[in-house]
Amino acid sequence: MHLHHDTEPHGHHGAASGGGRPPVRPDGTRRALRVGLGGPVGSGKTATVAALCGALRDELSLAVVTNDIYTREDAEFLLREGVLAPERISAVETGACPHTAIRDDISANLEAVEDLEDANGPLDLVLVESGGDNLTATFSRGLVDAQIFVIDVAGGDDVPRKGGPGITTADLLVVNKTDLAPYVGADLARMAADARLRRGGLPVVLQSLRAPDGVREVAAWVGARRAAWVAHP
Ligand SMILES: Nc1nc2c(ncn2[C@@H]2O[C@H](COP(=O)(O)OP(=O)(O)O)[C@@H](O)[C@H]2O)c(=O)[nH]1
Ligand SMILES: [Mg+2]
Question: What is the pTM of this model?
Answer without folding.
Answer: 0.92
